[in-house]
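Re: Re: ligand-bound prediction request (bumping)

Still looking for help on this. To restate: I need the protein modeled with NAP bound, output as structure tokens. Inputs repeated here so nobody has to scroll up.
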Amino acid sequence: MDLGLKGRVAIVAAASKGLGRAIATELAKEGCAVAICARTAADLERTAQEIGAIAGREIFWRALDVTNADGVSDFVAAVEKKFGRIDICVTNTGGPPSKKFMEITLEEWRTAVNLVLLSSVYFAREVLPRMQRRRWGRLLTITSISVKQPIDGLMLSNSLRAGVTGMAKTLANEFGADGITVNNVCPGYTLTDRLTELFEKRAQDAGVAYDEILKQSTANVPIGRFARPEELAALVAFLASERASSINGTTIAVDGGSTKGLL
Ligand code: NAP
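Reply:
Sorry for the wait, this slipped through. Here it is.
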């Protein structure tokens, strides 16, 4: 299927590793001009070179903390200068700490609001007017299945990703008439380096083998395994494409069926 992504210009935030990296790779392979950011310049440069080698095209990169509104503004302007426009923007960031309500300080709440919610606001404010002028655009947020089924102990993620989802749904209504779609993609457990490290630590703490932890953790996943980053990236590429022009305001999980709700 030709997704019609050739020549589109895409920003993927928090993309030196994990899900962001997989999404940037997929979009570049589909023919998009891709720009990526993350905080650590060395990782980002290496990732840009690796994706560039796979896709056979230059990947634009800039070291940036997505909680810095001015930094996001400058980055989006630099991408527009480099590639002429912005068609697709995928918001993403690192996860907030896993804590229960009474363990979280007010400062940690403020930091997490900046990281999870406001970082998406910063990108949306920059890219939507540009997309509106060209009457075409795709804004995609990477959140978590916690927006469909809150996960015990993840108070910050459960609370703030719901805010991102509410923002995106409302933007879908506001900007649909401009040819812009806005959708949320919700990873369940996905085998990124971060998850592997988490499970290695769990295995070490419990004194059991890594494979045993993996087996226990996948017991509730109907497909019997965790998702791979490129599986989530494939959905993002589809939603970013011409083919998905009537899919707007949705919140789709990529979790092997582990969310127990109907929708
Ligand atoms: P990851 O492998 O740890 O990658 C995170 C990426 O984000 C890195 O490139 C990191 O680079 C960048 N980043 C982190 N904080 C940033 C910031 N403030 N500004 C700019 N870039 C930043 O994580 P992942 O597994 O891909 O997860 C991505 C998101 O999906 C996270 O929010 C995570 O909580 C969520 N999620 C993941 C899973 C899963 O199973 N993997 C499931 C549900 C939800 P730098 O550190 O260099 O900035």
